[in-house]
């Protein structure tokens, strides 16, 4: 769910839909990276909201990867138990299928 969606924050919701539309128009976009140099700048919020917008499109699959080792905000927000570390995937101790949640 988009932050503020049920609170009537039309402008915020429209912003995320516009970002999604821009990225859909540019059909070469396959990967989106949300990053910043500082903590608490809204990376997780932006990433989950854009992912949520894309998930509303028909025939669209979305893979949202949270690489914030300390906060794990994506799994917490979606209520997913986070038992696998990204390093297990990087070093081949686990497969990508062991990480994907629907």
UniProtKB/TrEMBL annotation:
Q: What is its EC number?
A: 2.7.10.2
Q: Which GO terms describe its molecular function?
A: non-membrane spanning protein tyrosine kinase activity
Give the UniProt keywords, A-Z: Kinase, Transferase
> Pfam families, per this entry?
CbiA
Could you tell me which InterPro entries the record lists for this protein? CobQ/CobB/MinD/ParA_Nub-bd_dom (IPR002586), P-loop_NTPase (IPR027417)
Q: Which domain of life is it from?
A: Bacteria
Tell me the ranges covered by the CobQ/CobB/MinD/ParA nucleotide binding domain, including all copies. Answer: 32-72
Top EC class, one word:
transferase
The protein's name in its UniProt record: Tyrosine-protein kinase YwqD
Q: Which gene encodes it?
A: ywqD_2
